[in-house]
Design goal:
The complex is a heterodimer of chains A (about 80) and B (about 425). With about 80 residues, chain A is an all-alpha fold. In chain B, strands 5-4-6-7-1-8-14-13-9-10 form a 10-stranded mixed beta sheet, sandwiched between helices. Chain B has a two-stranded antiparallel sheet with strand order 2-3. Chain B has a two-stranded antiparallel sheet with strand order 11-12. Chain B folds into 2 domains: about 240 residues, Peroxisomal Thiolase, Chain A, domain 1 (3-Layer(aba) Sandwich); about 150 residues, 3-Layer(aba) Sandwich (Peroxisomal Thiolase, Chain A, domain 1), CATH 3.40.47. Chain B contains 14 helices and 14 strands. The chains are: A mainly alpha (about 80), B alpha/beta (about 425). Chains A and B meet through helix 1 and helix 2 of A and helix 2 of B.
Chain lengths: ~80, ~425
């Protein structure tokens, strides 16, 4: 069964919250992962691995480069999950 | 004439406790920190026991989000270092940041993390490897995290001479202060190698005790029935300080670092020279450097790991260095209680030696029930003994043939 956008969003926020030590309530789709949430380049790489493992997808390097905000992550994951069906 | 170097802070993480006074009390009481490994992941080979720092907690010092980015060995060093700095009263915010250092011995680094990531590599492929792998496993991570925590911009590095690492690190720190290059150093050693690879690797050498049914009896230095060392984990970090610097801020002084000796067996990559020629030479050199005669040493904290070859070699080394006085000098191996912390051992052992000096108590060699006739010296068997102690010698010998001995004395201005 496909995940709804809300379900994807909830999981993404939970992973980011855990990895970066941020309260999940402070993480919004508009949050910039590096500038607002404090992720460094290693955190970003670790987050991508966590998303890939959680959603069982492969995020291309090219698409990783386009991700800036939490919303970008959610959209990218939704796109890949839908195209896989 | 070089600067005098004193020790003004102590901190540790150890199998007998993760706070200095608690660990010392248990050591003197004869409690053992050796325990059965209960997790199925690690109890897979010959030795299923270890000295685990079970009371360790990084909370309050390392943020939860950072705990998984820092391997256990570096967490140990950071927590021990914070304790030591608190004990010393040094305020790094007021120090010249280029005249402070962090020199931490580490034998193997993040062995457990190497295993976890290697497993992932094999089972799931390269895309699943954490970007924190390398910064976690590198043996210099302990020294580096201490530098980051305290804003240390002077020298910071790790020293790796296997089980002699901590002593070699402390000797480096001592020399930098003696030569006027720095004022304060965080120094000692750390290790967290109670992992599958650690247990299996040392197990393959038959270096570890296999007395699995009696964990507390397994570490038996100098005993006829010893069958190898018990692997341990933890860290001992001390604050070394230039004397005038310490006096100016009215610091409590635990003791003065007065000498050291370093030699190499250069014979076999793991087997010690059975006659103890070069280990003995390191002890002699440490006495010469401290300008002391053997009769002036009140306590020797032995390397004493409980390997069949190593303990005899050490007894022979002590006989060479101490001559006629060898039978009279008080010796003990605190590894009988903690297990062998490898690169971390020299740090906690100098701390225990300074506490022995403070309290006038020699901690016992546990499980020394049936002394090996080849180890016929006074190893303070089974129970602690009261004795006035003004000078101590602490030995560490590492795989690779590295011998490093340090001498500390009661501080007298």
């Amino acid at each position: 069964m496909a995940l709804s956008k809300a379900e994807i969003s909830e999981k993404v926020v939970s992973i980011i919250s855990d990895q970066l030590g941020r309260e999940s309530g402070t993480i919004t789709p508009q949050s910039d992962i590096a500038n607002d949430l404090g992720a460094d380049s290693l955190d970003l790489a670790e987050l991508m691995i966590a998303f890939e493992e959680e959603f069982e997808i492969d995020i291309d390097e090219e698409n990783v480069g386009n991700i800036t905000t939490v919303g970008d992550v959610i959209n990218q994951i939704e796109k890949q999950l839908n195209s896989a069906e | 004439m070089g600067k005098r170097v004193v020790i003004t802070g102590l901190g540790l993480v150890s199998p007998v406790g993760c706070e200095v006074e608690t660990a010392w009390k248990r050591l003197v009481e004869g409690q053992s920190g050796v325990t059965t490994l209960t997790d199925p992941e690690r109890s897979v080979f010959r030795s299923k026991i270890a000295g685990l720092s079970r009371e360790f907690s990084p909370s309050g010092i390392i943020e939860p989000k950072d705990v998984k980015k820092i391997d256990l060995f570096a967490q140990f060093a950071l927590v021990a270092g914070v304790q030591a700095v608190k004990d010393s009263g040094v305020d790094f915010g007021r120090e010249n940041p280029f005249r402070v250092a962090s020199i931490i011995g580490c034998g193997v680094g993040g062995l457990g993390e190497i295993e976890r990531q290697s497993d992932k590599l094999l089972l799931r492929g390269p895309k699943h490897i954490s970007p924190f792998t390398i910064p976690k496993i590198m043996p210099n991570a302990g020294a580096s995290h201490l530098a980051i925590y305290f804003g240390i911009h002077g020298p910071s590095y790790s020293v790796s001479t296997a089980c002699a690492s901590a002593n070699n690190a402390m000797i480096d720190a001592y020399k930098m202060i003696r030569d006027g290059e720095i004022d304060v150093a965080l120094t000692g050693g750390t290790e967290a190698a109670v992992s599958r690879l650690g247990l299996v690797g040392f197990g393959a050498m038959h270096a570890l005790s296999e007395r699995n049914d009696e964990p507390e009896k397994a570490s038996r230095p100098f005993d006829a029935d010893r069958d190898g060392f018990v692997i341990g984990e933890g860290s001992g970090v001390l604050v070394f300080e230039e004397l005038e610097h310490a006096l100016k801020r009215n610091a409590h002084i635990w003791g003065e670092f007065t000498g050291y000796g370093v030699t190499t067996d250069a014979s076999h990559i793991t087997q010690p020279d059975s006659e103890g020629v070069y280990a003995g030479a390191a002890m002699e050199a440490s006495l010469r450097s401290a300008k002391l005669n053997p009769e002036q040493i009140d306590y020797v904290n032995a390397h004493g790991t409980a390997t069949p070859l190593g303990d005899v070699a050490e007894a022979n080394a002590i006989k060479r260095a101490f001559g006629d006085f060898a039978k009279s000098v008080s010796i003990s191996s605190t590894k009988s209680a903690t297990g062998h912390l490898l690169g971390g051992s020299g740090g906690i052992e100098l701390i225990f030696s300074l506490l022995a000096m403070r309290d006038g108590v020699i901690p016992p060699t546990l499980n020394l029930e049936n002394p090996d006739p080849q180890c016929d010296l006074d190893f303070t068997p089974l129970v602690a003994r009261e004795k006035k102690i003004d000078t101590i010698l602490s030995s560490s010998f590492g795989f690779g043939g590295h011998n490093a001995c340090v001498v500390a004395s009661r501080f007298v201005n």
